[in-house]
Design brief:
Helices cover 38% and strands 25% of the residues. It has a six-stranded mixed β-sheet with strand order 6-7-8-3-9-10, sandwiched between helices. A four-stranded antiparallel β-sheet has the order 2-1-4-5, covered by helices on one side. Bound molecules: adenosine-5'-diphosphate and magnesium ion. Adenosine-5'-diphosphate binds next to β2 and α1.
């Protein structure tokens, strides 16, 4: 579904992605892990064109999204993204946070958007918060709203950039549980995370980045039990 072919990304003189190639199949869940500054966020942001790769190609469903003529708006609509900080609209209720884009961008009727939004709030366990404002929610609740808000656009791919890193420990599980449910439902997902147990349990594959290179691309059992590279061994010793 997603083919990443020799992408590089430089910011001025700094080359942060140094030729990354991999593929993500439909329904596959890939965890991207690695040290801080290794290029994880940049790689994720290239997949939905928040960053434009300096060279190389990304092909989604046969369409080269890195082609200068590609329709960026249309590509982004197929890809949901959830960030560490939730970026909810503070002046809108939870329900309106969810219905805003489908109404404005997709031209969905208000009734239909609200019906869909309510289904998704139920799915993330927040039916009772439809009329609340974000400031009244806990971090875990905000992140679950952010996930529901992405899903309301019916993306084919969901990208997560450290979705639980800003949360108090007791709220991490409720967000990971929602993500696990989404994975079980067959969503194609790429997740930057430091939650190693979650990655081991939920991901189909681990991408380990170091210094802008894809150092390991392996099944979780292989990566966690038999890391091939010295870099991955050192990293795992530190985080486990
Ligand atoms: P990670 O998510 O693995 O911590 P990032 O992809 O955020 O790593 O960053 C990789 C490197 O690229 C870092 O050295 C970071 O400072 C640099 N970088 C990221 N975004 C920019 C930017 N917009 N301008 C300049 N440098 C950037
Ligand atoms: Mg990052």
């Amino acid at each position: 579904m997603i083919k990443i072919d020799q992408i590089t990304k430089s910011f001025g003189q700094l080359e942060v992605l140094k030729g990354i190639s991999t593929e993500i199949g439909k329904g596959e869940v890939v965890a991207i892990i690695g040290p801080s500054g290794s290029g994880k966020s940049t790689l994720l942001r290239c997949i939905n064109l928040l960053e434009v790769p300096t060279s190389g190609q990304i092909i989604i469903n046969g369409q080269a999204i890195t082609d200068p003529k590609a329709n960026v708006m249309q590509i982004r609509q197929q890809i949901g993204m959830v960030f560490q900080h939730f970026h909810l609209f503070p002046h809108m209720t939870v329900l309106n946070n969810l219905t805003y884009a489908p109404i404005k961008v997709k031209g969905m009727s208000k009734d239909k958007a609200e019906q869909k939004a309510k289904e998704l709030l139920a799915r993330v366990g927040l039916s009772d918060k439809a009329d609340a404002y974000p400031s009244r929610l806990s971090g875990g609740q905000k992140q679950r709203v952010a996930i529901a808000r992405s899903l309301v656009m019916e993306p084919q791919i969901m990208l997560f950039d450290e979705p639980t890193s800003a949360l108090d420990p007791e709220m991490v599980k409720e967000v990971l549980d929602v993500m696990k449910g989404l994975a079980d439902s067959g969503m194609t997902m790429a997740i930057v995370t430091h939650e190693m147990r979650f990655a081991e349990e939920v991901a189909d594959r681990i991408l380990f980045l170091d210094g802008g290179r894809l150092v390991e691309d392996a099944a979780p059992a292989d990566f966690f039990q038999r890391p091939q590279s010295e870099r991955a061994k050192q990293f795992l010793e530190k985080v486990r």
